[in-house]
Amino acid sequence: MATVAQWIEGARLRTFPNAIAPVLAGSGAAAGVDSFDPLIALLALVVSLSLIVGVNFANDYSDGIRGTDDSRVGPFRLVGSRSARPGAVRGAAFASFGVAAVAGLGVVALSGQWWMLAIGALCIAGAWFYTGGSKPYGYAGLGEVAVFLFFGLIAVLGTMFVQAGTVSGFGIGAAVGVGALSCAVLVANNLRDIPSDRVTGKRTLAVMLGDRDTRTLYTALALVPFVITVLIGLRNSWALLGFLALPLLLIPLRAVTRGATGRYLIPAVRDTGFAMLAWGAITGLALAFG
């Protein structure tokens, strides 16, 4: 039986910036058009956090039963370590998706945007089939595309839309920036796992590109948000404060570009997430008050 601490570790709290940053950015964009709704924003945060916990448990379950985690370097895995029964981990994933669904119902009821129930269903399906099912798209090099879509465009613009009933150019820019950094987190993670993923047949984008090109991709993705910062700053000078997040990326960029491998890339994954959270929060505030 896994301990409470192991279940918490299995939820991977270090991935929470991927869920929090888009809600902060989207809510800031909504506030920028005088449409911030604290209750809807809070429920949107519950949806986002529940989805990421769900996808983490779903990945733990699916990768664990396939044997992908048997020799992986990285965070603790409940199924791979044999600390919890696969069925229990799968149940935790479904329970998390259930919480996301209930909170999502609250969001659409308060906003009146009932058609977004379909978007919510798509998000839950995307979370499960990332590594679940007979043909998981995460094993076919599409993980980064999904992360950009779900934790970038949909999360940021969806958060804005349910509050404001519209999206803005600033909101789109924030969505691209958050999505790029969220992808960078996944790229750093998959760069670390290239050796074990090759052995187990998990064809991530990193496996397809190879070590060198994956490092180049990480660098490009990490810098995209600061291009967005400059573009938004042309109209809203407060957005230039987004550059305060750049120092948080210096250490992970150095690790990736200088050839760090294995466990030495674990801090790069973490720090990229912190940089995303900082950029999303600062940009959200700039859009709200700038």
From TrEMBL:
Membrane topology: Multi-pass membrane protein
Reactions catalysed: an all-trans-polyprenyl diphosphate + 1,4-dihydroxy-2-naphthoate + H(+) = a 2-demethylmenaquinol + CO2 + diphosphate
Keyword Transmembrane: yes
CDD domains the UniProt entry points to: PT_UbiA_UBIAD1 (cd13962)
Transmembrane segments: 39-58, 87-108, 114-133, 145-164, 170-188, 216-232, 238-256, 268-289
Metabolic or biological pathway, per its Swiss-Prot or TrEMBL entry: Quinol/quinone metabolism; menaquinone biosynthesis; menaquinol from 1,4-dihydroxy-2-naphthoate: step 1/2
Top-level taxon of the source organism: Bacteria
InterPro entries, alphabetized: MenA, UbiA_prenyltransferase, UBIAD1
EC number per UniProt: 2.5.1.74
Keywords of the record: Cell membrane, Membrane, Menaquinone biosynthesis, Transferase, Transmembrane, Transmembrane helix
Uppermost EC category: transferase
Principal location listed in the UniProt entry: membrane
Subcellular location: Cell membrane; Membrane
GO MF terms held by the record: 1,4-dihydroxy-2-naphthoate polyprenyltransferase activity
Family stated for the protein in its record: Belongs to the MenA family. Type 1 subfamily.
Function according to Swiss-Prot or TrEMBL: Conversion of 1,4-dihydroxy-2-naphthoate (DHNA) to demethylmenaquinone (DMK).
Name of the protein described by the UniProt record: 1,4-dihydroxy-2-naphthoate octaprenyltransferase
Species the sequence originates in: Saccharopolyspora mangrovi
Gene name, Swiss-Prot/TrEMBL: menA
